[in-house]
Amino acid sequence: MQSITADPYEAITRWYKRRFSVLWSHVPELVAIRAGLREATQLSLEPARFAREQARLEDFCHRAGLALQSYLRRGMVKVLISARAIPNLDPTDEQRLGELFGYPACCVRRFASHQAQPLEPFINHMTALLGGRDRVDFRLNLLLSCTTLHLVRHFPCHLGCQSTLEQARRLLEAMERLNPRLHRQILRHCRAPALYLDVCGAAVFFQGERLNDRVRYRSCHCPVQPRGLLALSMNASVSDCDLVDELVQTLRLGDELICRPNELLILQRGQWLATFPRPSHLAWQLISFV
Ligand SMILES: [Zn+2]
Predict the structure, then answer these.
(1) What is the average pLDDT value for the chain, to the nearest integer?
(2) What is the distance between the alpha carbons of residues 118 and 112, in angstroms, rounded to a whole number?
(3) If pLDDT is split at 50, 70 and 90, which confidence band does 175 have?
(4) Are strands 284-289 and 194-197 parallel, antiparallel or unpaired?
């Protein structure tokens, strides 16, 4: 059986990784800094990775006229890239960091209130945020926030947060002027229908059309690899990650998905290919980004 065509998303990701290395998924934030919409962005790297990337990162920031500061926190190197150097930075001050990243005050307050719990809302609180929604504004496509193709990188206080939506609108406008290529890619890919899976915030995106409970597609991709996030998850298990892997592999062989509450059916040219029954502890849903 032949796999269907390669997904254009994979070519886009390769391009940004080649060009921006560890900063590949932070390009929208770099546009926002250039447009004066935020002061800084930050990435976390394993110390060994930082050692390998430091010279390249410093060179990039020097050429782009940006400041780079780094500090160790919870065993990871935090790399803060900003329009100008930030003096007296306290890395534990979530409120101040939220301001530097330009996050709305309502979302910063909500995030800070999660302090007692693991601070990985994209992994542990996504299902609560999506809350069975069938349609979501494409500018709030958080399921792509780990990729280059996003407008929002913070976890909003709720999906109806008007400050977050306004920020996403302003960034999209700035992007049209400053990075028309990324602007085009976001308009195209953030509107793809997705199958959200309740495993470490993973979702499968389809190049294709959704009709009620089914999607006919030419290609698909899963930007999150749940296995790599398992240690940060409060709920997901190894067998959940296996299920996502097997599902994605099978979807790549098909061209149609039927999403029922208790099973997923995968078809190829109208012929049944596979059925995945829903484990009772997992939720899944189709989402249209409009
Ligand atoms: Zn908010």
Answers:
(1) 92
(2) 11
(3) very high
(4) antiparallel
Four-CA torsion 105, 198, 202, 126, nearest 10 degrees: 0
4: pLDDT strictly greater than 70: no
pLDDT of residue 15: 96
Distance 20 CA to ligand 1 centre (A): 30
- Taking ligand 1, which is a single-atom ion, which protein residues have CB atoms under 5 Å away? 104, 106-107, 157, 161
Helical H runs in the chain? 8-20, 27-34, 47-64, 94-100, 105-112, 121-124, 126-130, 162-178, 180-189, 226-229, 238-253
Q: What is residue 1's predicted lDDT score, i.e. its pLDDT? A: 47
Give distance in angstroms: CA of 165 to centre of ligand 1: 9
CB of 149 closer than 8 Å to CB of 224? no
| pLDDT for the residue 118 | 52
* Phi and psi based region of residue 21 (left: phi greater than 0; alpha: psi -120 to 50; beta: remaining): left
Tell me the CA–centroid distance for residue 144 and ligand 1, in Å: 19
- Ligand 1: centre distance to CA 163 (Å): 6
H/E stretch holding 263 reads: strand 263-268
Residue 101 and residue 42 in contact, taking contact as beta carbons nearer than 8 Å: yes
The two structure tokens encoding residue 33: 């800094």
More confident residue, 168 or 113: 168
Span from the CA of 164 to the centroid of ligand 1 (angstroms): 6
Expressed in angstroms and rounded, the spacing between residue 214 Cα and the centre of ligand 1 is 32
CA of 104 to the centre of ligand 1 (A): 6
Copy the structure tokens of residue 165. Answer: 């939506």
> How many other CB atoms are there within 10 angstroms of residue 113's CB atom?
10
